[in-house]
Amino acid sequence: MKWLFVLLLALIIFGGAAWFGYNTFVKEEIEVQKEQRGEVTPPPVVDVSLPEFEAAVKLRQDGKLAETRDALLAFIQKYPAGKHLDEARDLLGEVNSQILLSRYPSPEKIEYIVKSGDVLAKIARKLKTTPEMIMRMNNMSGTMLRIGDRLLISNPDFSMVIHRKSNLVVLLNRGGFFKQYHIREAKLTPKQPPKITTKIAETMAWKGGQRVGLGSKDYLASTKWIRLAGAAGYTLYSVPDSTHPNLEQPAPPTGLGLAATDLEELSTLVNNRTPVTIID
């Protein structure tokens, strides 16, 4: 048994020495060689912004829209180049439009009581908004008003920036970010100027190959386009999406295609006074 004890002791001594030598000299040399060959795996980067982004998502799931908006604005300001920046901007845009285009209470909205002689277009002109926005905000299926109706009204001051390389249409409200829409397809003429300053010429609604107006029974089910003034080839047109898988109106020869649901919303928010800047 004595020889077994001596053998175990030798294994412990020489094994420990071998382990120490490997970690001290061999392993270090291997790491140096890997570094020289550019094979060193960088340590994982800790995503410090994720908990705050997930907290904002949770607020949205709980229906706390105003709190979600505040949290996302703070998040974007704190992490302007963060990993979840684009997701945060997408989510903020959804929340902004959900607050605006509904009867959700907001400091930006006022209540208007319909009086004798009022029509939707007249109210929209008076309060510097659009009939479509009033309809969406108050969940109206038509333009008919009744005396005493209580309408929520908001008059945001929108401008639009089209980023060609990023394939984004960004909507600003009084100069601040409101929402971004992703361009699905681009059919433009070559040699575009690096910057175009223009405005919206008109919003269009198509049904059965014909233009339809706001008061038409076909308006709500129509395909929306937005034509820009003086910018040849720039028509924002609808392309099919999950909500509108089949569109009757064929796309124009040139222009920018957005999801039909996005363009339906965008055409509600803008009018022929909305300035547009197109940049690379």
Quick overview of this protein structure:
This protein has 280 residues and is of the alpha+beta class. It has three domains: 51-100, no CATH class; 110-153, LysM domain (Membrane-bound Lytic Murein Transglycosylase D, Chain A, Roll), CATH 3.10.350.10; 158-279, L,D-transpeptidase catalytic domain-like (Beta Barrel), CATH 2.40.440.
H/E series, N to C? HHHHEHHEEEEEEEEEHE
The domain count comes to 3
Low-confidence stretches at least 5 residues in length (pLDDT < 50)?
3-7, 14-22
Q: What gap, in angstroms, lies between the N and C termini?
A: 84 Å
CATH architecture of the largest domain: Beta Barrel
Superfamily at the CATH H level of the largest domain?
A: L,D-transpeptidase catalytic domain-like
| Helical proportion, percent range | 25-40%
Major sheet summary line: 8 strands, mixed, barrel
Q: Enter the CATH topology name of the largest domain.
A: L,D-transpeptidase catalytic domain-like
Mean pLDDT: 86
Q: What is the CATH class of the largest domain? A: Mainly Beta
What oligomeric state do these chains adopt? single chain
- Beta-strand fraction estimate: 15-25%
Q: Taking strands numbered 1, 2, ... along the chain, how are they ordered across the largest sheet?
A: 3-4-5-10-9-8-6-11
Can you tell me the overall shape?
globular
Judged by helices, strands and strand pairing, the structural class is alpha+beta
Count of distinct strands:
11
Q: For the CA atoms, what is the radius of gyration?
A: 30 Å
Number of helices: 7
